[in-house]
Design a protein that fits this description.
The chain has about 600 residues and is α/β, with parallel strands linked by helices. It is built from 19 helices and 13 strands. The strands form two sheets. A seven-stranded mixed β-sheet has the order 9-8-7-12-10-11-13. A six-stranded mixed β-sheet has the order 1-2-4-3-5-6, sandwiched between helices. Helix 3 links the parallel strand 5 and strand 6 (about 130-135).
């Protein structure tokens, strides 16, 4: 639960956020006293008005959905609180006329009371008014929800979109707009999950709302209320998505089988960010949901993935499914100028064919991504026609030990990099080590005694190690392969030292990093220099470790560490240098 906020005055937070919409959408006006956003260019004489609203904290819903082709106006309450009748009246009077107005609300008691009363008062003024209530939640089920019915969740946004598209046609009547909205609500299911509850700025933290690190909550609403199931431990994403989809489309679940998708002409999918997920994580979740739906024979024809209806910065997501007719699809595809709406995409049967699985390494014959090969290691062809320069058994033994040491040290390296970097160094080095370990393990019977093995090793690292560290390792290893290719006999430690010295000079031509700059070179250079001087690999490894430890207290001259608080330099050594120290100690058998 995030408890730190830039704005802690929640009243100012709401009114200022609404005012910002006048800066991002030139076609809206803001009735500040009533917290109402309305479409400026709407003509109530020729078009039906579509109004929605609810508490703040669900942005971009509802105010950012005001715009051509979607909502005509939206009334905002305070955070998680329904707008008052007076506010809703202000919205109605701003945009409604003889063509009438449709009020779309989620199934929450406050919204129903306030919007229903506002609709009745509109009718008394001679304005035709109708109310459509959206209840798309399936988590609670029929038995528990009883007379209250299903809660309204992110599926409401699809109702906004369809009703708004119908209302954008001047020939549409209020009855037609209502019918279109109801068609969506009657074929809609949603369920949400979150890793924690949210903290409302300026309010006390409620201990009972704080979930443990190994807990998630399934079936929560969008107002910070508890879900129906506390999950402990947190299931894997595939298992979690399966559970959610089962609740949505399992026809044998009489308590939740609200919509039959078996004979659906079209299935529309919305994967909604509850506010706190990164686009990266939401993308992975979307891919999993689409994959599982497809495996169930329900490939979606439209996909909406993004942030549509939030619960402040809730660290969770919701899934919405809509059984849609071709006409509804047309309205979902219709353009809108609402600034908060992310348009959907068409999902076709050939979508998987647009994913190219083959890597450039596989295409060129050097298929060592994640260390696996196609049954051989000689991507550089006919390795045994080249001179024997290494002992395969000894090479495998040394490399395995080096990789195992690096993998074991990953948590410590990550901790160091969290202090003085961006926290990815340990994982980056570990991923490369795992790929190399896989390479020598699965190819142990085919390891060539020639330079081809060093070339394959370099490519394995290149294909599996990202960032600056990956570039440095790759340059050094490719240069090492070039250097050892000049030998025509089995290399001893002194030969490896001379080859490594040549590789280090090649690396120096590509980077300004030198000993004393607080980089991995602080460990690599003393290792190479000591090995090249003929003192043996064990002393060279000790020199590398000493160089790594020497970076503690050293100011950074290169890399992201330059930008962090210098106090961290005194607490930990350079993470990349520590990774090198672990690696070379493994090679030396230390």
């Amino acid at each position: 639960m995030s408890t730190k906020h830039f704005v802690t005055n929640i009243d100012k937070l709401v009114v200022d956020a609404l005012e910002a919409l006048t800066l991002t959408n030139p076609d809206v006006v803001y009735y500040k006293a009533d917290k109402v956003i309305a479409k400026k260019s709407h003509d109530p004489q020729t078009h039906v008005a579509v109004i929605s609203g609810g508490g703040a904290g669900h942005e971009p819903a509802h105010a950012a959905f005001v715009g051509e082709g979607m909502l005509t106006a939206a009334a905002s309450g305070w955070i998680f609180a329904s707008p008052s009748v007076a506010q809703i009246e202000r919205a109605i009077l701003a945009v409604a006329g003889p063509k009438g107005v449709l009020l779309i609300i989620k199934n929450y008691t406050g919204d129903i009371f306030h919007f229903s009363l506002a609709a009745e008062k509109a009718r008394s003024r001679g304005i035709p008014a109708e109310v459509v209530v959206v209840g798309d939640d399936v988590a609670v089920g029929r038995t528990k929800s009883g007379k209250v019915g299903r809660r309204g969740l992110a599926g409401t946004v699809l109702v906004h979109k369809v009703a708004g598209a119908v209302a954008a046609r001047p020939e549409s009547t209020l009855g037609e707009v209502v019918a279109a909205a109801k068609e969506v609500t009657e074929n809609l299911v949603s369920v949400g999950v979150s890793l924690n509850h949210v903290h409302i700025p300026g309010r006390k933290i409620e201990a009972e709302n704080i979930m443990a690190e190994d807990e998630a909550e399934l079936g929560l609403g969008i107002h910070n209320e508890k879900g129906c199931i506390r999950l402990k431990p947190i299931p894997s994403l595939p298992d979690l998505v399966k559970t959610m989809l089962d609740q949505m489309i399992n026809k044998t679940d009489a308590d939740r089988a609200y919509v039959d998708f078996a004979t659906a002409d079209n299935v529309v999918l919305m994967v909604n960010n509850l506010g706190g997920l990164s686009p990266l994580e939401l993308g992975a979740i979307t891919n999993e949901v689409v994959g599982q739906l497809t495996s169930r024979g329900l490939r979606p024809t439209r996909l909406f993935s993004g942030t549509y209806m939030t619960s402040l910065d809730g660290p969770g997501f919701s899934i919405t499914l809509l059984r849609a007719s071709d006409t509804v699809l047309t309205y979902l595809d219709a353009p809108t100028k609402a600034v908060g709406f992310t348009p959907g995409s068409v999902v076709t049967a050939d979508s998987p064919s647009r994913v190219i699985v083959e890597s450039i390494a596989q295409k060129s014959g050097h298929a060592h991504t994640n260390g696996h090969t196609n049954g051989h290691t000689n991507g550089h062809t006919n390795g045994h026609s080249k001179p024997t320069i290494l002992d395969p058994a000894k090479f495998i033994s040394c490399v395995k030990l080096a990789c195992e040491k690096v993998i074991a040290a990953e948590p410590q390296i990550t901790q160091y990099d969290t202090v003085v970097g961006d926290g990815d160094c340990g994982y980056t080095i570990r991923r490369a080590a795992e790929a190399v370990l896989s390479f020598v393990t699965f190819s142990s019977e085919n390891i060539s005694p020639t330079v081809s093995t060093i070339q394959d090793l370099a490519e394995t690292v290149e294909n599996n190690m990202d960032g600056t560290s990956g570039a440095i390792f790759s340059i050094f290893l490719h240069a090492l392969a070039t250097s050892v290719s000049h030998f025509d006999t089995l290399l001893d430690e002194n030969d490896w030292g001379r080859a490594a010295a040549d590789a280090l000079n090649t690396l120096y031509a590509a980077t300004p990093a030198r000993p004393g700059d607080r980089t991995l070179v602080d460990a690599l250079a003393p290792f190479v220099d000591t090995l090249a001087s003929g003192k043996g690999i064990k002393k060279a490894a000790l020199a590398g470790r000493k160089g790594a430890e020497g970076t503690k207290g050293m100011n950074a001259s290169l890399g992201r560490a330059v930008y962090v608080d210098a106090k961290g330099y005194d607490r930990v050594p350079d993470p990349g240098a520590v990774g090198i120290a672990e690696l070379v100690e493994g090679l030396a058998g230390l």
